[in-house]
Every structure is written in C-alpha cells, then in structure tokens.
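Saturday, quiet lab. Running sequence design on the structure tokens for the scaffold JK sent over.
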C-alpha cells in the first residue's frame, strides 16, 4: 500500500509517499481501504512537534518518539470500505462503507488502515460522501466533549465560540446551538458569513472588535484555537461562567487546578475521549441536520504537502481532506 510517512519531525516537505507492506487485520479488527482522511491540527502538531511550550515538546518526544513519531503514518480518522475482517468481527462485512476514529493510534494517511471493531467506527451514512463523512469526527467529538460534558451547556445559556471557522469551532457553533444555547462566534472578516450560516446568533469580527470587552455576558467561552487567555476573557464570563481552552499551556493547567473547587469563574479543559457512542451521537446530529460538515478543501492524495501547508497556515475554514482514488473494479 501507499502511505504518507513522517520519519522525522519537520515541515510538510519532510513527509514522503512510500510503499509499505499491506497490514493484516488481527482479531477484532477491520482493514479499511481508505477513500478519504483529514489532515487536521493534530497531524500538523505531531509532524512538526509543535507544542504550546518547550516543556510540552520534551514530554511530546517521550510520548510520541524522540526524533520523529514512532507511529510514522499520521492520520487520526479514516473513511473507506471494509477490505477484510479479522477473526471475531461480527458487526461489519467486506464492502461496508465506514468512518473510523483512529485517534492517537494514527494510521489514516495510508491506502489501508487497521481499525478495532470495539472502537469508534460506524457505517457511513449513505447521504454523505467519504470526504464529508470523514470531516465530521475531529471537530464534532471535541466540541461535544467540551460543551456537553465539561461545560454542561444547557438551553438559554450564552456561549462564545472563539475560532468559530476552524474544525472544532465550526462544530462548536452548531453543537452549542443544538444544545439550545445562544451562540456568539468569533472569527475574522473573511469568515463572518460562513460562521453565520452555521447558526451563530451573533458574530464578532476580531479584526474590528474586542470580543472580550463585554461584561458578565457568557456562561461559557470556548477558545478552540488558543487565541485568548483566562485573564483576558474573565470579565466577559458571568460570575459562575467557565473558560474552556482547547489548547492548554502550563498557565491554563495551573488555572484549571487553582479554580477546580471554585463556584465562581473557572477554567475547565481536557483531552477528547474516543468513545464509540459519541461517534454515533455526532452522526445522529448530522442525520438530523443539526450538524453539517464544513470542508476547506479536498486535496488528491499526491498533494499531501500542500494539504499540510494549508493546515499549518492556521487559516483553514473547517477541515482539510485528502481524497484517495477509488480502487479498480474487479
Ligand atoms: N483538547 C483536545 O482534546 C483537542 C482536540 C482537538 C483539537 N484540539 C486543539 O484545538 C485546536 C484547534 O483545532 P482546529 O483543528 O479546530 O483548528 P483549525 O481548524 O486549524 O483553526 C483554524 C481557524 O482558526 C481561526 N483563527 C485563527 N486565529 C484566530 C483568532 N485569533 N481568533 C479567532 N479565530 C482564529 C482561523 O480563522 P481566521 O483565518 O479567520 O483567523 C481558521 O479558520 C488545535 O490547536 C488542536 O490541537 C484540542
């Protein structure tokens, strides 16, 4: 199979498209012929070992590999057809179209990917293309976890989504709205209309206005891109409001600990869990029309360097997706 390999941490040009042996599905595993896979902020972070601080970079080397990632094929999600199944697989058959979250096991940026049947993998809704289906989980699972599980956003609450045009932000606007919240989105001039179509009641263009100059207005501020700090947005929170940074530096970790028992304004965050039932939930939201995937651009597999450059720019609108050619008919 062909796979995009990251042998050393570095820029997009350090990636290579190479031939690797075809993987064989083990017990309880499916082998997916990948048709589409996103290049997301996690892939870009791992490839470049771009961490919020030098201390995190050192921790990253221990966790991921010292000179390059131990798991050389990146890719946290994949959509495709089941090529074969390992012993004990009961829910899927060869030929099924599926969407899977590989998470930190990675491996989506290849023509074939191994997926655990017990993990987050579901049949792809027929109404969605592989490209649109695979653009859903990364942002939506994160938004669901932060808004529903951490902040427990409920109907009528006011939520500010910072970075509303990114993968996580675009899903956050829609999921907060689905939870009944009144959503204000923060983005630049270029993305105001896009973000409004996602369902934001108010939009603040951060190039013209300071989104955090409001006083005691929001029950939750979800900073999906590391654009602000607790100190800067604190006054915009209600007295019991919660600041949710998706990107944590040492400062946020400290604030999270020091405000843990507070009933006042506080910081809450975490790492998105990879749960099968959450994947089902986000695709239910897609089926009901509450959540629409937002795609920045689809690149052919061979343009993986360009795709990574686009993600590195920090300007993508929704998801960047790599599309794989369909296998020849037999
Ligand atoms: N904690 C977790 O479990 C978890 C899970 C997933 C992701 N994350 C983290 O979440 C972060 C966001 O991921 P993502 O994939 O959603 O990012 P992304 O798609 O790469 O974000 C790009 C978007 O951010 C917007 N943006 C950039 N600077 C901004 C600013 N100052 N204010 C408002 N918007 C701004 C850009 O719009 P403009 O060009 O208009 O500025 C662009 O549309 C990543 O750092 C990732 O590591 C954390």
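Result came back. Writing it out in full:
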């Amino acid at each position: 199979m062909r796979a995009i390999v990251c042998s050393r941490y570095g820029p997009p040009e350090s990636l290579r498209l190479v031939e690797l042996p075809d993987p064989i599905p083990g017990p309880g595993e499916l082998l997916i012929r990948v048709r589409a896979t996103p290049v997301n902020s996690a892939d870009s972070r791992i490839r470049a070992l771009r961490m919020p601080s030098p201390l995190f970079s050192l921790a990253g080397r221990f966790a991921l590999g010292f000179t390059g990632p131990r798991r050389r094929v990146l890719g946290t999600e994949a959509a495709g057809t089941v090529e074969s199944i390992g012993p004990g697989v009961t829910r899927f058959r060869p030929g099924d179209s599926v969407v899977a979250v590989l998470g930190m096991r990675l491996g989506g940026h290849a023509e074939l990917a191994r997926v655990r049947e017990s993990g987050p993998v579901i049949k792809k809704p027929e109404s969605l293309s592989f490209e649109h289906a695979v653009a859903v989980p990364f942002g939506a699972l994160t938004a669901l976890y932060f808004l529903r599980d951490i902040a427990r956003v409920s109907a009528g609450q006011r939520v500010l989504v910072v970075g509303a045009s990114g993968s996580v932000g675009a899903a956050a606007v829609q999921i907060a709205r689905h939870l009944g919240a009144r959503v204000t989105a923060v983005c630049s001039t270029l993305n105001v209309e896009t973000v409004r179509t996602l369902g934001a009641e108010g939009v603040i263009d951060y190039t013209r206005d300071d989104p955090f100059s409001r006083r005691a207005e929001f029950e939750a501020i979800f900073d999906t891109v590391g654009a602000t700090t607790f100190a800067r947005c604190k006054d915009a929170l209600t007295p019991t409001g919660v600041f949710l940074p998706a990107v944590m530096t040492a400062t946020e970790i400290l604030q999270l600990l020091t405000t843990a028992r507070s009933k006042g304004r506080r910081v809450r965050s975490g790492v998105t869990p990879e749960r099968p039932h959450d994947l089902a939930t986000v695709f239910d939201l897609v089926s009901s029309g509450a959540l629409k995937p937002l795609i920045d651009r689809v690149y052919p597999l061979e343009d993986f360097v360009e795709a990574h450059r686009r993600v590195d720019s920090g300007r993508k609108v929704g998801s960047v997706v790599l599309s794989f050619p369909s296998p020849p008919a037999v």
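Notes for JK: The two ends are 17 Å apart (CA to CA). The chain has two domains: 2-135+293-323, 138-267. Ask whether to fix the surface positions before the next round.
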